[in-house]
Specification:
The structure is a homodimer. Chain A is an alpha/beta fold. The first copy, chain A, has 3 domains: 3-86; 170-332, Aspartate Aminotransferase, domain 2; 402-534, Aspartate Aminotransferase, domain 1. Chain A is 44% helix and 12% strand. The first copy, chain A, contains 20 helices and 11 strands. The longest helix of chain A is centred in the C-terminal third of the chain and has 25 residues, at 396-420. The first copy, chain A, starts with a helix and ends with a helix. At the A-B interface, α1, α2, α3, α4 and α5 of A face α1, α2, α3, α4 and α5 of B.
């Protein structure tokens, strides 16, 4: 072997085997995170926002470097240009999106997971991780459906069945649920070999329907639109049912929509209830919707990506009453199970439901194997179920109950603060731990309600711009963070822009919430916002 | 606040904030992994396989524990029942699936990623991670398509476009590619508002086609079947074109298949070329297939999940000639980019292609935003692109070239070992770094070739069972590992079971490969296998 080639090989072996020295840059970062992750994030993420265009300049080269770079050199780049300019999603004042700090044990367990590098598509690359994941799905199944104890043993580790599917997040979970529902609706029947085999157009021809539809409230997550597109249903047939004043599906409107579908010979494929709307944290009337789904003979899916863990709470579980009648339920682990990003689940009441999407291959997923991949949308994927298993085991039902209760109570406190403040308007009452509000000066509030529609619209358009700027300035300042969205406001008979707050981080204090409002009041004094307010 | 409630809260805060003491069980594991991950895996994973049914007993309870558990207690459980019974996928003798050891810097960077907990669906929860991911996709785009330098600046950070999509793995990547292809084929046209809006049945009615088809060789990955099902196309229309003796698509058979589709008024949606078949590592005749796709006017997708990184090698890049004419290409980062599990990419030649699957929401992904989520199948997802960015930067083009060259050369060495051994039969020559073979005693080899078809079939059925048992016993012994699959063998005019070896771990030595064969020779001496061999 020539000397050059040998030297190259030795370099390569070193890259794969020699750990980072603790005194190196990367070793020091690693140690700092191990010692005090909150301190590390606080120190290394720069709060004040740099314009995205400036950051982009650091990531502009499209040529893969020819020569290797020293790890230390690369790490310095990452520290300065990536970490510093990332978002402190675990900050107690970051109450605008569905991220939170997570329990400290998640970090070392996540490292263990990375080191083990299991691939859960098949037993041959995951072994004990396969039964562990199946147990996690069974635990969630039990939490939701409360089947009797003797229900589980025949199913939990049964290769012919699955109580659900683990995946990268709620979107894949929702898509998987509707995929299963679609394939069950168009199951093999006589000469028709099923939609999986023959496709959607032939399935419709076989059954004589003009189309199939998914019904969800106007607050349904955008992933359902993706699902309708992906599954060939078409977004036109994602029927967005209007909501009542509490952002819950209006049952009269639902029945109306069903009648329209029937008239058009469109078969309802699935009715989707939401347990924790993304924007307002409301829960659909699941019990009544289960009745409707039963009448329609259609799949009842509950998107509990956000609100599912409310089931841990003895005090608030009743808010989700009816979820146990669902055919499938989505729960995100990276939300209120406090697992790091990239873990979701869909659970099916009927353990044989997933056979509608079963698939095999010659080299893995063979018939009769226990490979998890024969019932999942994804193929190769990591064993993140360990982190859910750890959360459920270490925090326990009561620990999660405490987290849920804390969030809901903090949302009530925040709502109270907003209500008491003369210059804010609460635009949706918190049912779980999400609320929306907007800045609306005291002097404007009363006249706005009694104004003529055109005048209302003019003022609201200006308040929308104020809202947008408040959210933007607050984000840029980087001390606290709320998000924004647009909601229908029945009192103005139109859509308005609102600020949105999600209260799931247990480290968020009431004092921080008071600061959020104080900051917003300071921000509205800025000239660009004052100019808008003067036009009202 | 009552004392009990305060105590609970304090416990909760501690769980979220206090790091694990280094002397604790979890702290010790964490440190051991940091100090010497290879040593940790070697020590803690029990090589000999326990029956899955026994392991399942440790994961049988479906009740979520009421009370919290001590982290140390839980960690001991995990160490004994999960880690010990997981699979040592990084072992140099684990040459049966597509996992490998990975460079040491991936571990601390993965911890950094977990700690930052960015969500790449939107800029508001990822900031610098968004341009970083866009750069990674651009680098891969440049690697594949070699567009001129001035092509990239207008597109790389353009909110209206995307050079590709990052995702959890090759399956989602392939599905995304075909989803884009399908929606582009049925784009809005006159009164027809496009398939995304109106669905597949109306799209077919509008265009007058009886159906749409995806063409791929018989060696195509099973994810394409899932895609055909999910997208409403139907598995019947995933046309599996026969291969030549080197597991590459047979071009005559392809043209034959196209004619049959035309006769049936079925429109070819996409032609899929494979750059590294999963089972045999062969590369389709991409150049010729690009010509056919052009004639058909259909989307040309290349599934380079495995073989894509061959493009790093000056010596072997030519094997993928024609890939630059693809419309989309899948590359898995958790395969030959040596990133931990759960990272894939699809790259589109035309940066506007993804607009066919664009979606928006009111609270994120707003029109004009740079949120990555408006062009991805998944929603919330982690910033794993960092690990690809790190690999490309630290290992560099030349480092990856070395890895690729090493794997291909090692496969050639292994093939030579098999060929030289009297009792083994090489069943597919390695083109990249995958090969298949089987145990076939010297005394059987020659008579088998000249035997009558029925006798051939009888003997091969016995050899299939031998192959299955060899693979099973070898896996259970836990020293080395190869996988198995079934392949068409033209010399026997039928399918046979074969052992499959993937040579991507740079720590695998020639000596280990010799051991693999030696072990297999020992295994065949076991009574169950001898009994089969005596029947030949």
């Amino acid at each position: 072997m020539p000397n050059k080639a040998r030297a190259d090989l030795e370099t390569l072996y070193r890259i794969f085997t020699v750990p980072e020295a603790p005194e190196s840059t990367l070793g020091a970062i690693d140690q700092a995170i191990t010692d005090d992750v909150a301190g590390f994030l606080q120190t290394h993420i720069v709060a004040t926002e740099r314009p995205l265009e400036e950051i982009e300049a650091d990531f502009a080269s499209v040529v893969i470097p020819e020569e290797p770079t020293y790890v230390s050199e690369y790490t310095e780049f990452v520290q300065e240009h990536l970490v510093a300019q990332s978002v402190h999603t675990a900050a107690p004042g970051f109450v605008g999106h569905m991220t939170s700090a997570f329990p400290y044990f998640m970090l070392p367990l996540a490292r263990l997971l990375t080191a083990l590098n299991q691939n859960l598509v098949k037993v041959e690359t995951s072994k004990a991780f396969t039964p562990m994941e199946r147990q996690v799905l069974a635990m969630l199944h039990h939490l939701i459906f409360r089947c009797p104890d003797d229900f589980y043993p025949p199913w939990i580790h049964n290769s012919q069945a699955a109580l659900g599917a683990f995946c990268s997040g709620g979107t894949i979970a929702n898509i998987t649920a509707l995929w299963v529902a679609r394939n069950r609706l168009f199951a093999p029947d006589g000469n028709f070999r099923g939609i999986a085999q023959e496709g959607l157009a032939r399935a419709l021809r076989h059954t004589g329907y003009e189309g199939i539809a998914v019904l969800v409230s106007e607050r349904g997550h955008y992933s359902l639109g993706k699902a309708a597109d992906l599954l060939g249903i078409g977004r036109d047939q994602l029927v967005r049912v209007p909501t009542d004043d509490h952002n819950r599906m209006d049952l009269h409107a639902l029945r109306e929509a069903c009648r329209r579908l029937q008239d058009a010979n469109i078969r309802p494929l699935a009715l989707v209830g939401i347990a924790g709307t993304t924007e307002t944290g409301n829960v659909d009337p699941l019990e009544a919707m289960a009745d409707v789904a039963q009448e329609l003979g259609c799949h009842f899916h509950v998107d509990a990506a956000w609100g599912g863990p409310t089931l841990f709470s003895d005090h608030y579980r009743h808010l989700l009453a009816g979820i146990e009648r669902a055919d499938s339920v989505t729960i995100d682990a990276h939300k209120q199970l406090y697992v790091p990003m990239g873990a979701g689940m869909v659970v099916f009441k009927d353990p044989t439901a997933v056979s509608a999407i079963e698939h095999h291959a010659a080299y893995i997923l063979r018939h009769g194997s226990k490979d998890l991949g024969s019932h999942t949308l994804e193929g190769s994927r990591p064993g993140k179920a360990l982190l859910v298993h750890a959360g459920l085991s270490i925090i326990g039902r009561k620990g999660y109950e405490l987290l849920i209760d804390l969030g809901i109570e903090r949302a009530k406190t925040f709502a109270q603060l907003i209500r008491q403040h003369p210059d804010f308007e609460l635009t949706s009452e918190p049912e779980l731990n999400i609320l929306t509000y907007r800045y609306c000066p005291a002097a404007v509030q009363k006249p706005l309600i009694t104004a003529q529609p055109e005048e209302q619209a003019r003022i609201n358009a200006l308040l929308d711009q104020v809202c947008l700027l408040v959210q933007k300035h607050q984000r840029e300042a980087g001390r606290t963070f709320v998000s924004r969205t647009r909601l229908h406001a029945s009192r103005y008979n139109g859509e308005i822009t609102v600020l949105r707050s999600v209260l799931a981080n247990p480290l968020t204090t009431d004092e921080i919430l008071a600061t959020v409002l104080r900051e917003e009041c300071e921000i509205v004094r800025q000239p660009d916002i004052q100019a808008l307010l003067h036009q009202i």
